[in-house]
Amino acid sequence: MKLSILDQSPISSNQTAQEALKDSLKLAQVGEALGYSRYWVTEHHDLPGLASSVPEVILSYIGANTSTIRIGSGAVLLPHYKPFKVAEIYNTLATLFPNRIDVGIGRAPGGSAEATNALSDNYLQNVYKMPSLVKDLLHFLDDDFPADHEYSKISASPIPLVAPVPWLLGTSKKSALLAAENGMAYTFGQFMSDNDGPSIIQEYLEAFTPRKQGQTAQVMITVSVICAETTEKANELLLSSLIWELQKAKGEGHKGIPSIEEAQQYKWDNREKVTLDNMKKNIIIGNPQEVKEKLIDLQASYKADEIMLSTIIYSAEARRNSYRLIGNELLIND
């Protein structure tokens, strides 16, 4: 099984943002040593507790301190940006780190309405233009605009020897079909969707049209996972993440992810208890053998080529250990 890492660079309540970013590097290095295929960074804006507002800068840091693991965005929020600039950034990364760069594309705002307005003036209009933005980006990455196109005389320099691999990220039939139409690899965000993922993936596979000769469909699913030596320990670690989500929903949580002790002191009401129970349904929790079995079942139901794991907990070492335990079960002896 191919496994990868999705990192949001979470900041715990006992950390600075600098320390959180250094822990992101440590996680990427652990993933590389274990045989994880990719390390991707999310893009979030003005969200307390996350240090991942500028993925391309983090990727430069990660790429310079690793050597083999693929690195990329998960995702560049394309409606905020011009495709030409995105292509320049990721072509530069692909020049620095040959044959290692992925450029994942998404359409979400990545933050509050205020942060969205501060980033771009025409976000909603650009969401409607997403299909054309995607096509332009692909042409810039492939350096193959038709001769009669207005951009045919420019290139997103530097042009790397191996172009970044474009992925489209989404949680809906609409995003799956857009990926299929453009011959793009597709990542389904199972960890943040209640939609029927397997049927969406099936539609992607059936509609896939290669953009280049010999190209085949690629499917990756992203899941939330917390693994520990025992199921009890995994559930204990989970509490910090769940309470932080409740705090954020109430406009709190500005200090970052609470410790287990802080989370245990949180007093939730019956409505929040229902919310907690619902959140747990979308997270894979358990000891290494339990997590292994759930991931294998998930891969089969989605017909996925790869699974990307997202783990947000208070302790950076426990987070690395979660990936380590899973890697030892599914990668080391693969």
Task: Name a few traits of the molecule.
TIM Barrel; 334 residues; globular; 46% helix; 9 strands; single chain
- Mean pLDDT across the residues is 95
Overall shape: it is: globular
How large is the count of helical segments? Answer: 13
Order of helices and strands: EHEHEHEHHHEHEHEHHHEHEH
Radius of gyration over all CA atoms, rounded: 20 Å
GO molecular function: oxidoreductase activity, acting on paired donors, with incorporation or reduction of molecular oxygen
Family: To bacterial alkanal monooxygenase alpha and beta chains.
Domain Luciferase-like: 1-300
Protein name: Luciferase family oxidoreductase, group 1
Q: Please, could you describe this protein's structure?
A:
The chain is an alpha/beta fold. The chain has one domain (2-232, 284-330): Luciferase-like domain (TIM Barrel), CATH 3.20.20.30. It is 46% helix and 16% strand. It has 13 helices and nine strands. It has an eight-stranded parallel beta barrel with strand order 1-2-3-4-5-6-7-9, surrounded by nine helices. The model has no long low-confidence stretch (mean pLDDT 95).
Write the SSE topology.
Elements: E1 2-7, H1 17-34, E2 38-41, H2 55-64, E3 70-77, H3 83-96, E4 101-106, H4 113-119, H5 123-128, H6 130-142, E5 165-170, H7 173-181, E6 185-188, H8 197-207, E7 219-227, H9 231-249, H10 260-264, H11 270-280, E8 283-286, H12 288-302, E9 306-310, H13 316-330
Parallel strand pairs: 1-2, 1-9, 2-3, 3-4, 4-5, 5-6, 6-7, 7-8, 7-9
Helix pairs in contact: 1-13, 2-3, 3-6, 7-8, 12-13
